[in-house]
Design brief:
about 65% helix; mainly alpha
């Protein structure tokens, strides 16, 4: 399903991509990240949607943090970026 969402993202069809995402019963980090990239690129016209999606993810991964920090950067959300950065686990 994530592949289909990615395809519609590449075709800039946010409506269909969001509808497909909404039909996924057991969303995983890949499906969240694929949809988040769409919003990060500004293709949806809603710069804050990427942050909203990030907030709904229970266990973000490295890719998630990269996507959301880039989205914050492009939307000039410095405080939000700092808060998210502080949540990134440090691997020793």
């Amino acid at each position: 399903m994530s592949g289909l969402i990615d395809m519609f993202e590449k075709c800039t069809d946010i409506t269909t991509a969001q509808e497909l995402f909404d039909t996924i019963e057991n969303k995983n980090i890949i499906s969240y990240n694929v949809l988040n990239v769409f919003h990060f690129k500004g293709l949806s016209g809603d710069d804050l949607k990427a942050l909203e999606i990030y907030n709904s993810i229970l266990t973000p991964n490295e890719q998630t943090y990269s996507i959301i920090l880039n989205a914050c950067s492009h939307s000039l959300l410095v405080n939000e970026a700092e808060q998210i950065f502080d949540l990134i686990p440090i691997k020793c």
